[in-house]
Amino acid sequence: MSQKNVRNFCIIAHIDHGKSTLSDRLLELTHTVEQRNMKAQLLDQMDLERERGITIKLQPVRMKYEQNGEKYILNLIDTPGHVDFGYEVSRSLAAVEGAVLLVDATKGVQAQTLSNLYLAIEQGLEIIPVVNKVDLPNADAPKVKKEIIHVLGCKEEDIFEVSGKTGLGVDKLLEEIVKTIPCPQGDVEKPLRALIFDSKYDTYKGVVAYVRIFDGEVKRDDEVTLMAGGADSDVVEVGHFKPDMQKVEKLTAGDIGYLATGFKSVEHCRVGDTITLVKNLNEVESLPGYKKVTPMVYASFYPLEGDDYNFMRDALDKLKLNDAAFEFEPESSQALGRGFRCGFLGMLHLEIIQSRLEREFDISPTITTPSVVYEVELRGKPGERTKIYSATEMPDPSVLEKIYEPFAKLDIISPASYLGAIMEVMGNTRAQYANTEYIDSERIVLTFNCPLMDVIINLHDDLKSASSGYASMNYAINEYRPYDLVKMDIMVAGEKVDAFSRIVPKEKANSEGKKIVEKLKTSIPKQNFLIALQATIGGKVIARESIQAFRKDVTSGLYGGDITRKRKLLEKQKKGKKKMKSIGRVNIPSDAFLSVLKK
After folding, report:
1. Domain spanning 193-280: which superfamily?
2. How do the domains of the chain map onto residue ranges?
3. 23-39 pLDDT per residue, tens
4. pTM for this model (two decimals)
5. Distance, C-alpha 573 to centroid of its chain
6. Which helix (H) or strand (E) holds 282?
């Protein structure tokens, strides 16, 4: 089929605005999937996605459609909506010419609606605005249309009303997709250029790259190379998604499909890379926009039983095969034994990995408090920055010039009536207020610059509580800024315990230190001697609690007699306790670590 009859598009929306349900209706109307094989959220392949009702892994599908006697090929990419997977969404948008902007008629424009819309506008895509869920009793389509007009600047008659559930208006939307979205502009005669917008690991075929062919063509046994990854391979198989993989002879310019590479790890086949033929490597330019995705949030996973360490490493290895953004390396802690330091794109990514460990491998790890990546500049080395991933890597204050932490631009969309409650929540963080914009008379967008550490720890839950669940947030890391941060250590009976060390803002150090020693006081059992719990910065103690010693009644055997005899026995006991204190080490139970480390 000629390129002029091909349409490549994706659906962009906030979480839970009905992307996957609308995709189901499109598959039904185009008869891509037989009715007997149809099920809700068909494109969400993982059980976890179906249960939580969110798309985690994007999914392409090829549909055949006939209009006025002419046949068309529609390539749809169902994208995830969550901020953690923003880079995947941006590469999916780079693979298509148009986007269906979906907004829930009951909820209106929300944070990720805006962020994904801006990504689509940056890529220069043709945008079709759609109000979904118009069949619901509490739907308010006219109000939502006004919001869309405000953010997109379109006309009211350009906005479609559909119901992904009942199929209302979906046929008109299909006609509009064919009419409005431009056909691909590729050249079959040029050397191959294909963009990888996702990849997954297959036991039999190796790494399968999901690609959009921009120029040229590719078929089985072609020798291809990755322009950023630098790895070469022979193509094992090429094909389309219907939505299952279907083999074809070749993929040509304008097509979206898959390419089985035979690589053994998705590390080689990163999202955003360009594939070309080895023989044409020096003739082509790579497609723009590639960047190596780096984890933003780090947390440590420890197996509950020491014997499970190797089993857990194998499990993490298998998860990494399918997820190039996930990183882990072994580490050990005095308290929790051997474990793994893991890197994630954000908190949802962390939750997904944790859930998959529990479901697929029956492992429930101990998880330490998540932290972010800091950068430090040492004295005498201006301009040179080193990344540090945990408090134990923090250099001595005497050689430290500056410490930088990641700041994010944070957008919060909420009904205006919750403005006071949201400002109160933000007042408890280190966020700096930037701007307020009214979408309409009832809804506002609040913009803040906020340290990433404050965003990832509980901010989402606090905002939902303050706004009765109506507020939504979206963030994007925009810079590293110098900030007055200090390393806080915890001493138990005069010994430093590394597992409790953390990096905190100087102004919050006292309250953080107090919180930790108070938690420890209730978690560590009494010993036969007094235990001092101290939070320190450098050599200075900023908070202290004491766990009193057991007191044995040594005078219980005395009947009558002089007070001096009692005193003699008590003095003897005092000396014994002093001796024990100098020898005795405090045994800290693992649940004491958990009480401090747990989120």
Report:
1. Translation factors (2.40.30.10)
2. 3-180, 193-280, 297-368, 395-482, 486-597
3. 888 888 888 766 555 55
4. 0.78
5. 57
6. none
